[in-house]
Amino acid sequence: MIDPASLAPAVAVAARAQPERLTNIEGWHEHIPFAFALIALARPSVLVELGTHKGDSFCAFCQAVAELGAGTRCFAVDTWQGDPHAGIYGEEVLAELRRHVEPRYARFATLMPMLFDEALARFADGSIDVLHIDGLHTEEAVRHDFETWLPKMSPCGVVLFHDTRVEREGFGVRKVWQEVAARYPNFEFFHGNGLGVLLVGATPPAALLEWCRAEAGAQETLRAVFRKFGERVRIGRHLELYQSANAELWKRTQQAEATLDGAVRQLADTQKQVGELCLQVGDARTEILRLGDLVAAWEQRAARAEAELAKVLSSRAWRATAPLRRVAAWLRRVA
Questions:
Q1: Is the separation of the CB atoms in 187 and 204 below 8 Å?
Q2: Do residues 200 and 159 touch, judged by C-beta distance below 8 A?
Q3: Cα–Cα distance, 50 to 83 (Å, whole number)
Q4: Which residue has the higher pLDDT, 187 or 272?
Q5: Which of 214, 232, 262 is at the close of a domain?
């Protein structure tokens, strides 16, 4: 049987867990309450995570350490270049994670951009209390990570395997988990793609050992409790996204309305200008008509003058006086 008194602190911590960092990588979100409970129960001196990506799980561990004053040194090992399962990405993921971790947890948290095997030499044998394996999920990679890091585990060592319930091509976590679970005390959560808790140390945390040795009904109760806690985190994340989307939609609506108001004002100004131009065009048309009337009148007067001139030129008097006009022209030249 599980002693309720031994569970109370961990359950209380898990119930209060409010993660500060939740990215769009949701696979670990539902296990964050257990991350808080684990820190409360195990009080590890050293925690190492193999495979961090955007850091939801690692930041949950760090937040729990800070809030509980656990004194744990936390290390995240990852190339931050991606893999076939997590996808390939660039340096921007690590840079963004640094911006979250360093201001909050720099005194005890270290990000180690390197291969898992390269990081092995940085840790003494028997020095790691909690190891979280969440790197490349092929069977060969998971088995290699467990076997190479096992000597680094302390007498109270706990190893976490994520995605123990994922069964699809290329994922071998479940097979490795089944192998190691046959050799060590263990407990498995079925929600959130599955999380295996393996007690590899000779003297593991007593409360966790109780969990592993509890009868099936008690274990199922624990799974149900932490599944509910995990669902709350997941729903909270979705609610946050919904509220954020609503806020963004409201912002865009306000911007659209402001743009529309501006367009309406501009249209009104344009209509006013068009009205003024129409008046000017009307005035111009009136002036054109007036000038047309004047031109028509002048054309009529010119036509009458031409007719009068033609009449004069064709008259007998004009022809009779032609010699006199020639003499007068000659005298003007002589003069």
A1: no
A2: yes
A3: 13
A4: 187
A5: 214
